[in-house]
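Please check these two lines:
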Amino acid sequence: MSQRLPESAIVLAPLAGGPATPELAAAVTDAGGLGFLAAGYLTPEAFREHVRRGRALTPGPLGANLFRLSEEPVHAEAIAAYAAELEPDASRLGAELGVPRYDDDHYAAKLDVVVEERVEVVSFTFGCPSPDDVARLQETGSEVWVTVTSAAEAADAAAAGADALVAQGAEAGGHRGSWRDDAVDLPLLALLAEVREACSTTVVATGGIGDRAAVLAALDAGASAVQVGTAFLLCPEAGTSDPHRAMLERGGPTAITRAFTGRRARGIVNEFMRDHPHAPSAYPHVHHLTAPLRAAARAAGDADRINLWAGEAFAAARAAPAAEVVAALRP
């Protein structure tokens, strides 16, 4: 049973890859929510600095999210063919494609960071930590939350000792938190019903929650809190890039794509997504392949060749301080 749920019932999603900042996490915590830091894509040293910076900015609790990856078979020929397909994009931006490869995002070193820094809540995405890792965190006073997208994942996470489950509906922006890339997506309310039936562990709902009505619907469906990401992307405290901010304000449809990272993720539809509908399922191999291309596009302000992660309710996002966003969402 989770003891770290905020009184406001509002939890900040981790927002790995740039938008997450210590300033945003601290602002959400100070407003009565629970701010989260993202370990994903940072070095262990940079992640530790983010934790310490967040600690310096707020006296309240913070969460941190780690990727829990497992190496899966990939098709080298499909990755090579995709690299050839991407060459014109890279040439147009004056960038060289990266080297596709597997890594576990420094899992062991980042686990050491959250243990040593005694982060109040540690959540996991893409998989479940071992019972030993769960126990290690709990022994130092951390709660363990695990992202799940099905009843089966929920039951396994509960069996591993998780204090709470973050149930991610199909409406969510960014990467699917499913433990396998070929998992079936369920809308949030349907997922909540299945997870609640599968186990009695505390549930935090996430996916397409952009206003107070959506918060109340999730709480009415049995969630104890909600985790919100896209609604905070336009906050001044967020590290969201300028072209990403511009597209969030412009509007448009969202869709699921593997084009940027080789793993299914929801973003605002742009030219890159339309041009590359058949990217292979290979994460983080494709992420490393496209990272230099995306960095060059971001620097050039080219919104058509960067990942524009956003949930289905992104039109509700407003360019307002994080405290105002928390106040507008809280039930």
Residues 75-102+238-309 form one domain. The chain has two domains: 1-69+104-233+317-331, 75-102+238-309. The mean pLDDT is 97.
